[in-house]
Specification:
Structural class: alpha+beta
CATH superfamily: Electron Transport, Fmn-binding Protein, Chain A
Shape: elongated
Oligomer: single chain
CATH class: Mainly Beta
Radius of gyration: 19 Å
Mean pLDDT: 95
Low-confidence stretches: none
Number of strands: 9
Bound molecules: flavin mononucleotide
């Protein structure tokens, strides 16, 4: 069914469908990293943009995942849309996204999301939630005279882009005879797909 299609186009089509059918966060993806000791770790992030073939998400650049991605640029992401009974597996290599877009995307977020991102030392121990709440209150005062959009994006927060090198599209099939198509890149950087046994 998808043999001759570009998997990114199919992925975008599925994501559009999921946007209509999922209860929330159709763009949520589990991202697996491998740290400097070879230990894998998974967590959810939100896919915020697809630029060409690159998948863009935003996070804290001092977080656990950021440290792992610095040590090992290979990542894997996974989407599962229960409402569609479909799964997409993507592996790729991660890089910082265009720094110019960080402020732009940061400014598009709600004020509280921005202050939260500034205040959060993501993945570090927080002895008491009050410390974080107080920090956000402090920032509210600090930025009260700034026009909302001008709150600066901290240098420790921003986008990463994943450059896919393998994509698997999985669709639920009758009698568990599911459809799986795996795509890799040939030497000309074109996607080549094969059907896999389920
Ligand atoms: C649905 C969902 C979406 C999330 N989206 C993001 C995101 O876009 N960026 C982010 O930094 N954390 C996001 N989180 C929180 C992460 O899963 C994770 O807790 C956090 O980034 C710290 O991960 P780390 O310690 O592995 O770096 C999300 C969590 C959920 C459940």
């Amino acid at each position: 069914m998808f043999d001759n299609k570009n998997p990114i186009d199919v992925f975008k089509m599925w994501l559009d469908e999921a946007t209509k059918t999922e209860i929330n966060d159709p763009n949520a993806m589990a991202i697996a990293t491998v740290d400097e000791k070879g230990i894998p770790q998974n967590r959810m992030v939100l896919l915020k943009d697809i630029v060409g073939e690159d998948l863009v998400f935003y996070t804290n650049k001092n977080s656990q995942k950021a440290k792992a991605m610095k040590a090992n640029k290979n990542v894997a992401v996974l989407f599962h849309w229960k409402s569609l009974s479909r799964q997409v597996r993507i592996t790729g290599v991660v890089e910082f996204a265009d720094k110019d877009n960080d402020q732009e995307y940061f400014s598009s977020r709600s004020t509280m999301s921005r202050l939260g991102a500034i205040a959060s030392k993501q993945s570090q121990v927080l002895a008491d939630k009050k410390i974080l709440i107080d920090k956000v209150d402090e920032l509210k005062k600090e930025y009260s005279d700034l026009e909302d959009k001008k709150i600066p994006c901290p240098e420790y927060w921003g986008g990463y882009k994943i450059k896919p090198n393998k994509i698997e599209l999985w669709m639920d099939g009758e009698n568990r005879l599911h459809d799986r198509f795996e795509y890799t890149k040939d030497k000309n950087n074109n996607w080549v797909g094969s059907r896999l046994y389920p």
